[in-house]
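#struct-pred

JT: dropping the chains for the assembly here, can someone run the whole complex?
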Amino acid sequence: AQSVTQPDIHITVSEGASLELRCNYSYGATPYLFWYVQSPGQGLQLLLKYFSGDTLVQGIKGFEAEFKRSQSSFNLRKPSVHWSDAAEYFCAVSPLNAGNMLTFGGGTRLMVKP
Amino acid sequence: DSGVTQTPKHLITATGQRVTLRCSPRSGDLSVYWYQQSLDQGLQFLIQYYNGEERAKGNILERFSAQQFPDLHSELNLSSLELGDSALYFCASSVARSGNTIYFGEGSWLTVV
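RK: done, full complex below.
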């Protein structure tokens, strides 16, 4: 069965500092990969996705993620964090050509210090 | 705004009761999904409908059922509610059955007391 691991439950960074959120997946083949963000009391907003091609993908709000097949990882990065980035971030995978059922990681809660 | 609309936003009900959550997908989307987010289970896929037909089933309890209507809106019915059913229920939609981006609504908060 496929699974997604986000090793860091909580991360605190200072405003303006760089950010990397880790995501590892376990799946028989390279799945579709996604990062979603959930602000307090809000729904899930898609930040970026990887289907194929260039392994460095750009998303909204200045986020990017890099797919590394050898490490089964899809880490999310941002060069300079803003206070408004405080939220919970979810990595998710979806199997190729077998429906859009997303399997989510447990989430990483990001706190931003002023 | 994702374009996926869910009602109600908040709902408080007693154990043993039945509730219906409603979802309108984005314009043009044929697939609708339901997910449950709870503190102990995280985000879990419940069920998918595509153009009115059940497409895939996840960890959905037998007390729960869903359907997608000809106008493509969907309803999730939760019956014989238990305290543990308290959660945020998300609806999501996509254009096709697979290989597409899924867009989520803001969710329906269900509290069972």
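JT: nice. The mean pLDDT of chain B is 93. The radius of gyration of chain B is 13 Å.
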